[in-house]
């Protein structure tokens, strides 16, 4: 892991990032997709880049056997402390798991931070190696346009240093962090064009089932999003609406995050 990426995650932001606002929307939508795409419990899940186990714990509570692999020591410690979850340090490009040993692999994070295509392809191939034939690989990626929209909503775009980052991302997907730790900006990362994750999965020998946009335009609602999330009925209506258009190609790029669902033949 690149030093600036490790430093970013050691700040502890993953502990509560998915608990409110756009993070909460990301969590709810992701779990909505997992509920429909994962094999039934008690299937085994390898949660690669599973951070502090925010997804692993509710999956374990639902009866799944969940093992987290993450390169950040504090993440591994926190994930291992969650009920029903096991965890160890590891790298998505060299998974400490046997061939065809799990029913599902989650890549929720690794593809964000592998800036070179060959490294991302290696991560995809490792996921394909360890999942059983017929098993599912679900990978999260950040949209090529996330910095453009999210930076505007969060007022980062007012900083003259931010626009060159956005221009670079729009050009080639690469976002390099230099001396920005602690200001709220995301660290070094690769932001995928919606067409790229399926192509990467196919290159790794997987069959793509579908790709899903998570947040749609709802992440740009600002205070209104907090109001919606505070009301269970409004939240359910929002999730129903997003579910209806989650595969619409013309809307994929506007989501901050995309999920690609693929299976091992």
Automatic annotation (TrEMBL):
Organism field: Paractinoplanes atraurantiacus
Record-annotated Methyltransferase type domain positions: 46-138
Record carries keyword Methyltransferase: yes
Keywords tagged on the record: Methyltransferase, Transferase
SUPFAM superfamilies per record: S-adenosyl-L-methionine-dependent methyltransferases
Gene Ontology biological process terms, A to Z: methylation
Name of the protein in question: Methyltransferase domain-containing protein
Protein family according to the UniProt entry: Belongs to the methyltransferase superfamily.
Molecular function GO labels: S-adenosylmethionine-dependent methyltransferase activity
């Amino acid at each position: 892991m690149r030093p600036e990426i490790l430093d970013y995650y050691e700040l502890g932001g993953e502990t509560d990032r998915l608990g409110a606002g756009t993070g909460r929307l990301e969590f709810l939508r992701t779990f909505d997709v997992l509920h429909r795409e994962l094999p039934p419990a008690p299937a085994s899940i390898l949660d690669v880049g599973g951070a502090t186990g925010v997804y692993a714990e509710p999956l374990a509570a639902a009866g799944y056997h969940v093992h987290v692999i993450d390169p950040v020591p504090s993440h591994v410690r926190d994930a291992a402390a969650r009920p029903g979850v096991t965890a160890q340090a590891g790298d998505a490009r060299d998974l400490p798991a046997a061939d065809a040993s799990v029913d599902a692999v989650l890549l929720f994070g690794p593809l964000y931070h592998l800036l070179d295509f060959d490294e991302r392809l290696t991560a995809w191939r490792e996921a394909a190696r360890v999942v059983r034939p017929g098993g599912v690989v679900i990978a999260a990626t950040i949209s090529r346009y996330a910095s453009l929209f999210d930076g505007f909503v969060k007022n980062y775009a007012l900083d003259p240093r931010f626009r060159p980052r956005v221009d670079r991302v729009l050009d080639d997907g690469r976002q390099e962090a230099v001396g920005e730790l602690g200001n709220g900006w995301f660290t070094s990362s690769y932001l995928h064009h919606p067409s790229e994750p399926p192509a990467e999965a196919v290159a790794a020998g997987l069959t793509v089932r579908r790709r899903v946009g998570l947040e749609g335009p709802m992440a740009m609602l600002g205070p209104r999003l907090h109001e919606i999330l505070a009301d269970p009925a409004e939240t359910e209506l929002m999730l129903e609406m997003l579910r209806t258009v989650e595969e619409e190609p013309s809307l994929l790029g506007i989501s901050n995050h995309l999920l690609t669902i693929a299976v091992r033949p």
